[in-house]
Inverse folding.
């Protein structure tokens, strides 16, 4: 039987930066130090007017192929997680198939999730591979949330940045002597009561149906309620995953949580009693990029040596929906 | 943590002088109150009492005294 594993991750961030110094020119009550103190973010990357989620995803995927780990002909499934697709239809993954020159025999679709999306994507990729439906899944997470933001709303502009990650999930025959799964198990969660807490009404059919003459609001985020949600659900998910996998906190070599903001992460880290050296931060220079945060954090932790081959890594995604999920990955 | 300590913690969050916050204070009307202070208040209540309150529950309390009572009730129930 084949076991799915993460073979490679590359990411791409757009060129333009939005620094705290630039933000405070508009938000006079704030200082750059206060923003970094509360969010852990010094600057974010921001797409240009003409740059879209497809462009970021293609750029990230090209880095993956340039790395030589796989060629485009080897990809037989594309999964794109985005909440900023180029069009409502067709699926942006179809546009990406054509631009990357991936064979037309590939499967491809988009799925609409935010901060939990990477973990859900791993779950689907694992299912496709271990059930024999695909061999090499290109899991793309790409967002341009900055296009959804009200430019006068500091609470979202201080946090979100744009970016994309390309993750290659492949299968290899299970080694009988070490027959452990490389991705999984998973725990999931959904609570639609949280929908109004993080929502983009602008451009939606619901908004047009109910308020035909108004454009609809830009991204609305109720930070305190979302924080309260994470305080309940993230520790509960971590414990549920430990119970399901038969592992203890000490068995986990590294924790990679969705990079929401440093204030929230630091509070969760302390609440879960995770030592700092086992916890990844990767948002100071790019902000919260939504579904790409976890693969970006993994890629950086692998590059800088915080994560080593053989490490057992816990991933936890949580946010808009509300939607959350957690899994274990054996790195390398 | 007694009531006086609870008020002191809120004063720290708001960066205000000791004695500024009392049982009849309305937290949203305090100098220094903003969305970041709301997050800090949620974090403080979680850390000190193991109670996670939503923003709407905090805003539902007319005064800081009633917020303290709510937190104590929840902590007992937990």
């Amino acid at each position: 039987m084949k076991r799915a594993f993460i073979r490679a991750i590359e990411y791409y961030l757009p060129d333009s930066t939005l620094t705290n110094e630039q933000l405070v020119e508009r938000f006079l009550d704030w200082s750059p130090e206060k923003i970094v103190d509360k969010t852990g973010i010094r600057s974010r990357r921001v797409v240009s007017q003409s740059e879209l989620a497809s462009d970021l995803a293609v750029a990230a995927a090209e880095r993956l192929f340039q790395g030589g780990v796989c060629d485009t002909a080897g990809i037989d499934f594309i999964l794109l997680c985005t909440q900023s697709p180029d069009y409502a239809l067709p699926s942006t993954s179809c546009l990406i198939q054509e631009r990357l020159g991936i064979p037309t025999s590939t499967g491809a679709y988009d799925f609409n999730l935010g901060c939990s999306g990477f973990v859900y994507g791993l779950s689907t990729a694992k299912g496709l591979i271990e059930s024999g439906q695909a061999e090499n899944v290109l899991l793309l997470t790409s967002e341009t949330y900055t296009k959804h933001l009200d430019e006068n709303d500091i609470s979202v502009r201080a946090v979100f940045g744009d970016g994309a990650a390309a993750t290659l999930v492949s299968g290899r025959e299970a080694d009988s002597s070490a027959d452990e799964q490389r991705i999984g198990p998973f725990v999931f969660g959904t609570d639609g009561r949280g929908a109004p807490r993080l929502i983009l009404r602008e451009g939606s059919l619901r908004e047009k149906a109910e308020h035909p003459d108004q454009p609809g609001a830009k991204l609305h985020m109720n930070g305190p309620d979302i924080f309260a949600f994470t305080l309940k659900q993230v520790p509960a998910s971590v414990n549920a995953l430990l119970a399901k996998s038969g592992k203890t906190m000490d068995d986990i070599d590294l924790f990679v949580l969705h990079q929401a903001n440093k204030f929230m992460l630091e509070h969760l880290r302390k609440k879960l009693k995770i030592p700092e050296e086992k916890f990844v931060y990767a948002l100071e220079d790019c902000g919260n990029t939504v579904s790409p945060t976890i693969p970006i954090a993994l890629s950086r932790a692998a590059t800088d040596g915080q994560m080593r081959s053989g490490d057992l890594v816990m991933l936890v995604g949580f946010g808009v929906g509300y939607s959350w999920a957690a899994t274990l990955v054996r790195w390398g | 943590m007694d009531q006086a300590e609870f008020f002191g913690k809120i004063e720290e969050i708001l960066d205000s002088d000791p004695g500024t916050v009392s049982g009849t204070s309305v937290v949203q009307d305090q100098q220094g109150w903003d969305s970041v202070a709301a997050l800090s208040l949620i974090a403080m209540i979680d850390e000190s009492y193991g109670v996670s309150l939503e923003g709407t529950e905090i805003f539902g309390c007319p005064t800081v005294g009633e917020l303290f009572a709510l937190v104590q009730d929840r902590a007992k129930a937990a």
